[in-house]
Amino acid sequence: MNIGDKFYKIPEIKLMYNPRVKASDRPKVGNAAETYKIFIQDWNRHKIYLIEQFKILLIDKRMSVLGIVTIGSGGLDGVYVDPKMVFAPAIISGASAIVLAHNHPSGEVTPSPADIKLTNDLVTLGEILHVKVLDHLIVTRGHYYSFIDNHLIKY
């Protein structure tokens, strides 16, 4: 049998980003308070105190928002975050940077040791991939904690 005689069935994988908002209409982020406002309007107000969710904000080189992606949803005490799934949307969309965010259903915004370790790991991975992690927010309705404002992210 010749090598060219066999037909292989291979699934097609499509990587795409479909912006629905004109670049000129996208909000810009410059600080944690602005970023919090963008995240909190996306959070389901009925779930924020019921389940922990992890989201990312995709940012272009002009600091404009490309989109928000929910990376995972968990239970009352945590959410599993796969680092590959954090950076896949950033790479697909061509984002220059991301902002991480998750909620604590308890309403407490103080980061846990696991939150700090995950953030440090994602900052390191972002440096390797050339996708800067600008901040990590822990959010509740009306309150947030910024890792950058509290000097927990170091470059």
Write the layout of secondary structure elements.
Blueprint: H1 32-42, E1 53-59, E2 65-73, H2 83-93, E3 97-103, H3 113-129, E4 132-140, E5 143-146
Low-pLDDT stretches are none
CATH architecture: 3-Layer(aba) Sandwich
Largest sheet: 5 strands, mixed
The level-1 CATH class: Alpha Beta
Helix content: 25-40%
* Radius of gyration, taken over Cα atoms and rounded to an integer in Å: 18 Å
Strand content: 15-25%
Give me the number of helical elements.
3
Terminal CA distance: 57 Å
The outline comes out as: globular
CATH superfamily: Cytidine Deaminase, domain 2
Here the CATH topology equals: Cytidine Deaminase, domain 2
Structural class: alpha+beta
Pattern of helices and strands: HEEHEHEE
Overall mean pLDDT score?
92
Strand order of the largest sheet: 2-1-3-4-5
**Count of spatially separate domains:** 1
Report the strand count.
Answer: 5
